[in-house]
Write a structure and sequence with these properties.
This is Integral membrane protein. It comes from Streptomyces aquilus. The structure is a single chain. The protein folds into two domains: about 100 residues, no CATH class; about 130 residues, no CATH class. The chain is built from eight helices and nine strands. The strands form two sheets. Strands 5-6-7-8-9 form a five-stranded antiparallel β-sheet, with helices on both faces. A four-stranded antiparallel β-sheet has the order 1-2-3-4. The longest helix has 15 residues.
């Protein structure tokens, strides 16, 4: 496996100053890396193991960036939960849990370890592969689209309060005509937007033909609802099972397209939630 060279592992393990950590599992992975779990793993040169990984991002004594991949997912989950609660937690993976030590960082990290040189990629003398670099999010594209969907999922209430349900068109002749033109797919609350109709059709296809692992994920939401996240070629969908959905498209930079409940969306969301991957 790329990055498991003994010299690289030793360099990364030698006084690694941990800055942050993230999970790389089917139910929770940095979506900026891909539309699904296997794609995110491939971005790091990792096999998509069923139990997933923990990614520990830090610097060594020389300031070099390293991403240490471990198979102790629960350890990283506990550390992240502690940090999120404002508690201190020293993340020190055991050597036997280290799967790979990869040069560079796959994600942008805004902090640096004190008392060591500024973050930089390790030299080729200790790294047997090109350093990882964060995806380019300076221009609109798949990575930026997925980050936008992440933001909506986290700030759902903020986005939802900007939507007036009265603005959604009522089902009528126009919607029915659009539906007939698209193999009877209804355009719910979108004014017959062709891109959104395509997304809904592809999402329905997931119910019959399961997509790659992690394409559809379900997470906690207030009450009895769930937050759904689905991704596909060129699109991302974020929804609450008891509410509306938002769609983002690669071909429409920066646009967030709301999808009203209508007669079809509730059933689609329920079906997606039943097949979705959930955090343990």
């Amino acid at each position: 496996m790329a990055g498991t060279d003994e010299d690289a592992v030793a360099a990364a393990d030698d006084a690694l100053y941990v800055l942050t950590a993230v999970l790389l599992t089917p139910a929770k992975f940095p979506s900026v890396l891909g539309d699904d779990y296997p794609e995110a793993c491939a971005a790091l040169g990792l096999a998509p193991l069923a139990d997933g990984y923990g990614l520990v991002l830090g610097q060594d004594g020389d300031g070099s960036r390293w991403t240490v991949v471990i198979d102790d997912v629960s350890l990283v989950a506990v550390a992240i939960a502690s940090w999120d609660c404002g508690m201190e937690y020293e993340l020190s993976p055991d050597e036997h849990t280290v799967v790979a030590a990869l040069p560079g960082w796959p994600l942008a990290v805004a902090v640096a370890a004190p008392g060591v040189p500024a973050p930089h990629d390790p030299g080729p003398e200790v790294a047997d592969r090109a350093p990882l670099t964060p995806p380019d999010t300076s221009t609109w594209g798949p990575a930026q689209r997925r980050l936008g969907a992440d933001e909506i999922a986290v700030q759902w209430s903020l986005w939802r309060e900007q939507i007036d349900d009265a603005e959604f068109p009522m089902p009528g002749a126009a919607a029915e005509a659009a539906a007939a033109a698209e193999n009877s797919e209804k355009a719910e609350g979108t004014g017959g937007h062709q891109g959104v109709r395509r997304v809904l059709a592809e999402a329905r296809g997931y119910v019959d033909t399961p997509p790659p692992l992690g394409r559809v994920r379900s997470s906690f939401a207030p009450g009895d609802a769930r937050t759904l996240r689905a991704d596909g070629p060129g699109w991302s969908l974020v929804a609450r099972t008891d509410d509306i959905a938002f769609v983002l498209l690669d071909e429409e930079p920066g646009e967030v397209l709301p999808v009203g409940r209508g007669p079809e969306l509730p059933g689609l969301l329920e079906a997606l939630d039943k097949m979705a991957v959930r955090p343990l």
